[in-house]
Design brief:
It is a single chain. By secondary structure, the chain is α+β, with helices and mostly antiparallel strands. It has helices spanning 96-105, 111-118, 127-141, 145-161, 177-181, 184-194, 202-209, 213-224, 228-246, 251-257, 263-274, 278-303, and strands at residues 6-7, 18-25, 33-34, 38-43, 48-52, 55-59, 64-67, 73-77, 85-94, 123-124, 166-167. The strands form three sheets. A six-stranded antiparallel sheet has the order 2-9-4-7-10-11. It has a three-stranded antiparallel sheet with strand order 6-5-8, with no helix packed on it. The model is unreliable at 290-304 (pLDDT under 50).
């Protein structure tokens, strides 16, 4: 694809070492994009064309691809416009720092080093491997805490035993994140990611990007799939979720700490985003984490 990729902000979170989620169609991140995190991408429904680095090919259900940091990628399903699909894929994302730490801590993960080094070209596993990891990734969706890590190691075991994956991008392909980030709108996205609580004004960011305000608004929506205001709210609400989980700060302090200047608006936006109040989100997350820890403890006792 000849257009420059968009920067995607993954936000693994301070309370986790990896992020797993699913999405259907339509969805804003179904576009040519990149991010600094590794991504294991499993197609669960639809077929179509895949784009990874300089590679263009076909995908079917159970297509499983590991994409390295900053490698542009996209999967375009062969479906009519405006088709609604509940789930198209499962996505597992983790940072390079986590991978390096895990390999340093567990010698049994030494096989990962070569795999991750090769992921700079994108690695496609066999359909059988995709079929095998699907139930594990799906189970990870509904878990937190130690159980999720347990499933992650089970997934790595399946990958270790699988047939060798095939590289997708050309032998000489190299991602160029500096070039991508120099693009005007990616520069804006990076600014938002680094300072989500700042008093960003669309006119100021338009000037930063070199666009007129009207062109900036259209270009921003084309790049991210959503409006500037909704995008900024999403970044701030993600940060709020992270803070709600991390400590016992008052909701009002978190509201102002992430950049909202009105508590009632923050509560309304949060409820729309998460389907519950900030206090309820904190309570549910902690009760869920406690239950996961108790279950993990019970399993450990049964093994001893």
């Amino acid at each position: 694809m000849h257009v420059q990729p968009a920067l995607e902000l993954v936000n693994v979170g301070a309370d986790a070492c990896l992020k797993i989620w699913s999405h259907g169609l339509p969805y804003p991140t179904v576009r040519w994009h990149f991010h600094p995190e590794y991504e294991l991408h499993l197609i669960t429904t639809t077929s179509g064309r895949s784009f990874v680095g300089d590679y263009i090919g076909r995908f079917e259900p159970d297509n499983l691809v590991l994409v390295g940091p900053n490698v542009p990628h996209n999967w375009l399903s062969d479906v009519p416009p405006d088709t609604v699909i509940a789930e198209r894929c499962l996505v597992l994302q983790f940072t390079e720092a986590f991978a390096v730490s895990a390999m340093g801590l567990f010698p049994e993960l030494a096989f990962l080093r070569r795999l991750l080094e090769s992921a700079g070209r994108g690695l496609e596993f066999s359909t059988g491997t995709g079929t095998a990891v699907r139930p594990v990734m799906r189970s990870m969706l509904g878990t937190t805490g130690p159980r999720r890590i347990e499933l992650f190691f089970a997934l790595l075991s399946l990958i270790q035993d699988a047939p060798a994956p095939r590289p997708l991008a050309g032998l000489g392909y190299r991602a160029t994140p500096d070039v991508y980030l120099s693009q005007p709108l990616n520069h804006v996205l990076a600014q938002i990611a680094a300072n989500p609580a700042s008093d960003f004004r669309e006119t100021d960011l338009a000037a930063l990007s070199g666009y007129s305000p009207s062109r900036f608004s259209k270009a921003f929506k084309r790049k991210t799939g959503t409006s500037f205001v909704r995008y900024l709210h999403g970044i701030r609400l993600n940060k709020a979720c992270e803070m709600l989980i991390a400590d016992d700060a008052h909701v009002a302090d978190i509201c102002f700490g992430v950049g909202f200047n009105n508590l009632s608006n923050f509560n309304r936006q949060f409820r729309s985003y998460r389907g519950m109040s900030p206090s309820e989100f904190r309570r549910r997350h902690r009760s869920g984490a406690a239950a996961a820890a108790t279950a993990s403890s019970s399993r450990s006792m049964s093994w001893s």
